[in-house]
Amino acid sequence: MKKYKQFCYDNFGNYYYIDQIVRSRCDLPIFNAGEIMQIAFCDDEKVYLDLLVGYAKKYLSSCEKDISQVVIDRYSSGEELLEAYRQGKFYDLVYLDIRMDKINGFETAKEIRVFDDKAMIIFITSLGDYILNCFEYRPFWFIIKPVSEEKFRYVFNRALMEISNTRTRKYSFFTKEYGNLCLDIDKIIYLESVLRKINIHAAMEQYSYYANMAEEEEKLKKYDFVRIHKGYLVNMAYIQRINKSNVVLKNSMVLPLSERRYKYVFDSFTSYLARCSI
């Protein structure tokens, strides 16, 4: 039996058990040609700024992949980072110290959200009491100082993988009317099976094509889609609540939930919510 080492990643009191082999392996995602990943580190303590940037560069250099597409910038104040945004810079991932002079991390994050709604933000703090105040800025994670290399590598890898997954979350299908189409996964609300056709209900449009629902379920389940009925496959990001006989979506639409699938759907959605809260 494999032995696991227990340690806390300061993540809302949850504990993660990471296998030694998994933690030593470099899982840097593969980017498409021409894609650049932009990362910013912002901390007014030079010691920590050097430490975190050093961790990132060491991790990237240990990967057996071309890392020339990852750009790392460093800022010693929130003002510097925000000025970079005003000059047209955008970042996929931003590490922000919360306790900084003049403009603190929360104020900086608030301004960043004005420029960029998609940047992933990881807060760095020496005080856990700040954690409950950070949710309105939609952080991806927070790390409590002191930051060990082990802790940094784990969170850094998860962030890079999430960014890569977001960039590749596309769903392709063929329609008789429009030919090959490609939709952002996040814009698909649910799939409906009608006879031999699949109707895709997206945020602003609807498409129909010939396909088997079981095959579509197999393709989409890794993107948090759940089969609630033989005729419906739903993106859990759009579920508002689950009742005994139906599922209510965030747009107030009500879809049927088969009795035999209730427990599976409920457990899947509960697990999804737990993962989203991490």
Molecular structure report:
- The chain has helices at 20-24, 46-61, 78-86, 105-115, 149-167, 213-220, 262-276, and strands at residues 4-11, 14-19, 37-42, 70-75, 93-97, 120-125, 141-144, 170-175, 179-184, 188-194, 197-202, 206-210, 225-229, 232-235, 239-242, 246-249, 254-256.
- 30% of the residues lie in helices and 33% in strands.
- The chain is α/β, with parallel strands linked by helices and 278 residues long.
- The two termini are 28 Å apart.
- It is elongated.
- Residues 1-25 have low confidence and may be disordered.
- The longest helix is centred in the middle third of the chain and has 19 residues, at 149-167.
- Helix 2 (46-61) packs across helix 5 and helix 3 packs parallel to helix 4.
- It has seven helices and 17 strands.
- Helix 2 links the parallel strand 3 and strand 4 (70-75).
- The chain folds into two domains: 4-167, Rossmann fold; 170-276, OB fold (Dihydrolipoamide Acetyltransferase, E2P) (Beta Barrel), CATH 2.40.50.1020.
- The strands form five sheets. It has a five-stranded parallel β-sheet, with helices on both faces. Strands 12-11-10-14-13 form a five-stranded antiparallel β-sheet, sandwiched between helices. It has a three-stranded antiparallel β-sheet with strand order 15-16-17, with helices on one face.
